[in-house]
Amino acid sequence: MLKYIIPTMMLMPLTWLSKNSMIWINTTLHSLLISLTSLLLLNQFGDNSLNFSLTFFSDSLSTPLLILTMWLLPLMLMASQHHLSKENLARKKLFISMLILLQLFLIMTFTATELIFFYIMFEATLVPTLIIITRWGNQTERLNAGLYFLFYTLAGSLPLLVALIYIQNTMGSLNFLILQYWVQPMPNSWSNTFMWLACMMAFMVKMPLYGLHLWLPKAHVEAPIAGSMVLAAILLKLGGYGMMRITLLLNPITDFMAYPFIMLSLWGMIMTSSICLRQTDLKSLIAYSSVSHMALVIVAILIQTPWSYMGATALMIAHGLTSSMLFCLANSNYERVHSRTMILARGLQTLLPLMAAWWLLASLTNLALPPSINLIGELFVVMSTFSWSNITIILMGLNMVITALYSLYMLITTQRGKHTHHINNISPSFTRENALMSLHMLPLLLLSLNPKIILGPLY
Amino acid sequence: MLGLCGRRLLAVAATRGLPAASVRWESSSSRAVIAPSTLAGKRPSEPTLRWQEDPEPEDENLYEKNPDSHGYDKDPAVDVWNMRVVFFFGFSIVLVLGSTFVAYLPDYRMQEWARREAERLVKYREAHGLPLMESNCFDPSKIQLPEDED
After folding, report:
1. Using a CB-CB distance cutoff of 8 angstroms, which residues of chain A are in contact with residue B97?
2. Which of A50, A141, A385, B138 is deepest in the core (most CB within 10 A)?
3. Which residues cross the membrane (chain B) (predicted)?
4. What is the pLDDT of residues A41-64, one digit of tens each?
């Protein structure tokens, strides 16, 4: 693991000691090389995980998430270059340092063996994200957004700390590799009910579950582009990853404890998809779309079947790339029109045709068009929930229809139709923006050729 | 190509203030008249109102100073190098070499080995008349159950 952690740590002196003209070039270059080395994690065995040391391990669940994390840093740097161009040098370097720090904490979270270490890193990721949202966001609402983001997650995760310490005292170890063989069935009692809730609520808030999702539209909308990208692509998946790990300890009471959350998620995914149809703010639409997709992942993780786990992992990676790309597209609009209102910058296909092609691809993957990995994930989840209970297919089918509706609504509003006269002055797409979109889309399309690496540990 | 030349010509015409018409022309079929404007050559006055469609004054159009801008930086040299770094390291190295690496991963998660091993075991068990699979995962005689508590 040090082969990822040390280069990421060294990105920090690289930013601070580079020449003024070279900070972006140096950091982008070296973060791309780090993302190349991350592919080495794909050397997974069928019967065991890659155990690097007592502190770090990576199995087929954390590997795709790690690769996504390390791939996203150069993309975040490219996306932020324009809006930071007016800042002074120290602030630019500080911003890049926050991104690198976040990357470092995320790498350590996904590979942590010891669950307390996982918890510490899980909480630590909040700090750079909060700084990015509140310091570099664009509207005054960013302070409120930062507050919601921080306190929702903290309130959810404090019980998790208590539960982890309790497990350490009773089981003797919190090393995940040992724990998976030592785990005893959890008998049904009031204290175990609360124990289950304590373990799961942190991740439910992070995913987010429908009733606890209020922080997400605020945080995603108010964050600068790099913040939105990392929030949508990775930080939400921390919740899914944590849930998949912690449910190992919580059987068999998960069978009935999960019911209210499955209901909330099934209902929530339809609700949030419907809210998307009524959004005027482009980033808010994409944020609610994230809630809807993550609700699918929550349902998949809670029903705990092999196919649903495969679908959940595939959906997490697919949604990470798609959502990040949609935020980048929304940002390319925002940098030109300085407004997130969708109808303000419409009819863009005639003005920026190549960007319209990226909008089309992003919308198509968002609505889970075959043969993209989005479809593979959603299909596995739909199939496994159908086998869990036949009626869920109605809700899932309705969700897929509404997802298609709002994705096409977003595409048609921003791209099709007559363009407004007040955006005649927008500048053509930069090479940077087209490169950014293709760097999102190409891994997505390549993965549809070889999805086995994102199907998780039950493949 | 033509569009680019046309755009440059229009830009020149706009900045230099060339009159749209240089001679007076009257239509024979209608009463349309095209005449050189008396304001030709004079710069248009600064607009007194700021419209929403005007670009923000603090917005810097990177294409103005550097028509070949790639969007990374104002300095053209740094801009070009940044573009080259992103394309070379992002596409040529990570995407190309990375997908080659992923495509040639040996037996990811031992799937092919599992199939070969299963076929080998089936062949062995069929040859020896053993059942293909036991319903007990572990040998029942080796399991020690706790004492029944009354």
Report:
1. 36
2. A385
3. 85-106
4. 998 888 888 899 999 999 999 999
